[in-house]
Amino acid sequence: MKFSAFKPFLWMALILSTAFALWAWFRPYEWSSDPAALCEIQGVNLTLDHSYFWVEPFLKVNSGASHDLSKPVFLMTSQGRKLEPADTTFASPDGKETREIWLKFWLDSKDIEGPLDLHLNGGKLRLKTRSGIPTKSKYHTSNRW
Description:
alpha+beta, 5-stranded antiparallel sheet
């Protein structure tokens, strides 16, 4: 069999793999985020620490919006527990207006078992949609974990 017979299949495989890579690169963390939150989640770093978890969402403030420091920021677990951040870091390229926010939450196994919602600026963002306890540390680029 000649190599030229496989060329169309190789081209199709290349096109499909490129399309998938582009889709995976540009897809949002959450498809329908709450505009009242004034931010979008870029990713969530999950770190296992014995039977506990560090959950670190990375947020970008929407253009034209500003983060309201007077409103509470908390993580709501599926069991109804409100958790405040253990640490918060703000970044600003111009030194004036916050454009990026890093939050850090300390959760135990029962808190991370179900879906997680981040409440800020009067809105809600879904950090985690699925049930189950994660088994490894990972940087998540979608809320389906």
